[in-house]
Design brief:
Chains A, B: InterPro entries: Apiosidase-like_cat_dom, DUF5060, DUF5605, GH, Ig-like_fold. The structure is a homodimer of 509-residue chains. Chain A has eight helices and 31 strands. The first copy, chain A, has 509 residues and is of the alpha/beta class. Chain A folds into three domains: 89 residues, Immunoglobulins (Immunoglobulin-like, Sandwich), CATH 2.60.40; 208 residues, TIM Barrel; 87 residues, Immunoglobulin-like (Sandwich). In chain A, strands 1-3-6-5-4-7-8-2 form an eight-stranded mixed β-sheet, covered by helices on one side. In chain A, β16, α3 and β17 form a beta-alpha-beta unit. At the A-B interface, α5 and β27 of A face α5 and β27 of B.
Chain lengths: 509, 509
């Protein structure tokens, strides 16, 4: 029987079919339960369901088109097979722009075309905390600039993460030559509730499927069990539009690249919606050119304006433009160190440097993920458990996000003067917009070679989160700067109707 | 005739023979004038002389052994040929330790075995300034931590360096199919006076023989003229024990490596004392493994704790240890950016970062050179012209120099815990001394795995230039740290007779 079935669902919302039925064998793995969804326009999706405990199966579907959809259940549970239904898919509600996709090669948009600029944070084990802390985390996120959360399905066993989690996601045992897998339905209901909470706040859930910081064996399950888990998780949460698949954190501490490729194939096959897919490394870069990788998710604990480690150097190599060219995909520095003060080198950046890495990353054409690791007696560190944000960088990251969201979309790495601008990061849109970031450098002036036209030039004080107008300029000009670290110049072409603004004399030192 | 000849000279001092004689042709280039110096022990040096104007030739010699030396002049000026003399070489005076040599592969010592730790600065064009400014520069050096000066022979034409210098070093013209070269004796007398002033202050003169920032043609002279210049300069100043030969600043902006090799051969042949030889690059590293290179002189505008620019990375590559292994020679970062605020990316580092690069370099087994470029109306910037030091880093560099000079010599890159210490720079002497630098990172604690024995641990506050004793520790301990950037730990093995000091409990957080 079908129960509790909605009649309407919004585009990119979740349509859920609930079915009651008795399974033979292991209801999590031994039952075929799926539905084919068909739109009036002829789109067709085959979607797997999952066992939700108490003789209940669910099939969840995210329609990508408004209008009438019909479905038919297919199952080896006789009573369910052939069941049919239909529903109306209506316009998305405000704030629902669909799942995030890659667009313009190096960028992201929601499926409705709205640009999406990831400003992520890490909350690796937040779903494994007690409810009070989870609520505090959600409250913190609501007041934060972060619109992406990196979060593990499996609990974390690591420094500052030694407690047993309230629930384990699954268990497995060998029996008669095969693995008996059992999922903790309560855990997954809890997990998907939090994914949905994020969705309602406009936050993408960058779901980390595997990670090495483990004592329960989740990072070393047999492949058959791994795939049962992936299949179950995909069936449960892929209809949430804010889901991204991050195959692993520090994949290379678990197994080498070649062993992961098959897992990617599996996800590509099972996920009807083609959610974003990436993988994060500890040491060895994954080959992000692989077609199943939608964007490069990189750990890089250092300055992005590095010189090469090789003696045959080119001056001032900017790593993100290099990776963009190498992978032809968006680049997210998903781990660049965390603001904090703990004993580990990856977790004790000053807030200035956390902010700096955001600016470096964004103004060289990439995206950056935040994390926070302030030592605390109670061992609640944001980076993993959530709670309260204590750091000073989020305010500055919010400021940067505002600037980027106000800018024309799809800015690319660009130099006003390739010869002289080796020392700055700059993104822009030729002849229209430039954002030049000076990093720790602190010039008192700078020569700009402006393209044709008149440009409004603003000084951006990244730490003080202030923008000061420097005036209108054209041609080759010398701009006065305050001689302090962490400033940027925002340069915007004047519209014709801006012409009434008085042209200032070129500032000359 | 020989005139004004001393009877005594100290070891590694300059013994000078002055000869009067009329030359046929060009006295700078067409006269053979040299002397063979022989010690009682059988050492023999053939040393070229030079024309010093007004029918005067000089031969300068730096004896490396006390006792009686004899010499005999050889010249194609008949009156001078065969002249003989002798003098006594006496013990060096205080502060005279001889020329600096490479020792222990990666380090420097004076010839008497005293360790020398280069803490250099740049004064590229200071010799081309007016005398008042030169005197101010000397006064500044006297009160500075710097014991090496990078200085050009030729004047500099570049931003903030547009004035015509008081004197040009030389001129040349083509005549009858060969080059007529004339040296400005007054200039070289002036130049060598300043080299000697530095010597008297215990400062090494890292003499830059060629550089590209030129409008007079000195960087594009015919090879024959270049060699006449080198020969003349070597004859004049190689007897000053504090001379180093830096073949070029940014050699690759003048000509490629292969064209410089012959110049190195020439210097090796002409310099009787085997002074240190290096070359500094702009973009392309010189092959510092070449046998004529005594130490790697590197330009590196960035963090030294870089990750490789290559995707096949190893975590936390430390460039100086890598270069040490590559070249098997001492490594000096002779240009890492300058403290200041001018418009160029190489010249506007905050003082904290200038200090940081010294600490990074020194605590990873190398040496670093300072420079200062504060914008000034009068265009007198220390980096090139000298004058007054305005920056805040020299005080901190002095502090570091004191720490290094108090440490056991020849510290090497070392890790107390190779697994966990990827994030710090550390040099030490196994089981005896460790200096761990935390860079911008700011842990509130750190686990140390101390080798056998008891160790005195000091917190070094690099910016505040303070040292705080943290106590005596042994075994694996957790050390409390202040949670601020720019700190180091100095860890020194206790002597047995230190045992009366009360052992503190291990600090635990």
């Amino acid at each position: 029987m079908i129960s509790m079935t909605q009649n309407n669902v919004e585009k990119w919302g979740t349509y859920e079919i609930t079915l009651k039925g008795k399974a033979e064998g292991n209801p999590f793995t031994d039952v075929e339960i799926k539905a084919v969804f068909t739109s009036e326009a002829g789109d067709s999706f085959e979607v797997e369901g999952f066992y939700d405990g108490e003789d209940t199966f669910k099939i969840r579907f995210m329609p990508n088109r408004t209008g009438l959809w019909k479905y038919e259940v297919r199952s080896d549970i006789k009573d369910l097979d052939g069941m049919k239904g239909e529903f109306l898919c209506v316009d998305p509600s405000e704030g629902n722009h669909g799942p995030v996709r890659v667009c313009n090669t190096y960028h992201f948009c929601y499926e409705d075309g709205t640009p999406y600029h990831p400003f992520g944070t890490t909350l690796y084990a937040w779903v494994h905390q007690r409810e009070e802390l989870i609520q505090q985390t959600l409250e913190s996120l609501r007041n934060s600039p972060f619109n992406k959360v990196r979060m593990c399905v499996f609990p974390k066993y690591y420094a500052y993460n030694r407690e047993e989690p309230p629930m384990l996601p699954m268990s497995w045992r060998e029996e008669d030559g095969r693995y008996q897998v059992e999922f903790n339905v309560k855990f997954f209901q809890h997990f998907e509730r939090l994914v949905k909470e994020l969705m309602d706040m406009g936050i993408e859930a960058d779901v980390i499927l595997f990670h090495p910081y483990d004592k329960w064996g989740f990072c070393s399950m047999p492949e058959e069990v791994d795939k049962a888990y992936l299949r179950y998780l995909i069936a449960r949460i892929s209809s949430y539009r804010n889901v991204w698949w991050s195959m692993a954190n520090e994949y290379d501490l678990i197994k080498p690249q070649k062993d992961w490729d098959g897992y990617f194939h599996f996800i590509v096959e099972k996920d009807p919606y083609n959610h974003l897919r990436s993988v994060h490394q500890c040491f060895k870069f994954y080959d992000h050119t692989k077609p199943w990788i939608t964007h490069a998710s990189i750990q890089w604990q250092g300055s992005l304006r590095s010189w090469s480690g090789e003696p045959e150097i080119d001056i001032g190599i900017n790593l993100i433009p290099k990776w963009r060219e190498m992978y032809k995909k968006p680049v997210i520095i998903d781990e660049c160190g965390y603001e904090g003060n703990i004993e580990y080198g990856w977790g004790n950046l000053p807030p200035q440097e956390m902010m700096n890495r955001f600016w470096e990353g964004v103004t060289s054409g990439g995206y950056v993920t935040h994390g926070e690791t302030y030592y605390s007696e109670d061992e609640v560190l944001w980076w993993s458990k959530g709670g309260r944000l204590k750091g000073e960088s989020p305010k500055r990251i919010a400021f940067l996000r505002t600037i980027i969201e106000e800018a024309p979309p799809f800015l690319k790495p660009i130099k006003l003067d390739p010869m002289m601008d080796w020392d700055v990061h700059c993104i822009g849109k030729e002849g229209e917009y430039y954002l030049i970031y000076f990093d720790i450098n602190r010039p008192v002036k700078r020569t700009l070679k402006l393209p044709e036209g008149k440009y409004r030039v603003d000084l951006v004080d990244c730490w003080e989160t202030e923008i000061h107008s420097l005036g209108i300029f054209q041609g080759q000009v010398v701009i006065r700067l305050p001689g302090k670290s962490y400033v940027a110049l925002r340069i915007q072409k004047m519209e014709n109707n801006d012409d009434w603004i008085i042209l200032r004399e070129d500032a000359k030192l």
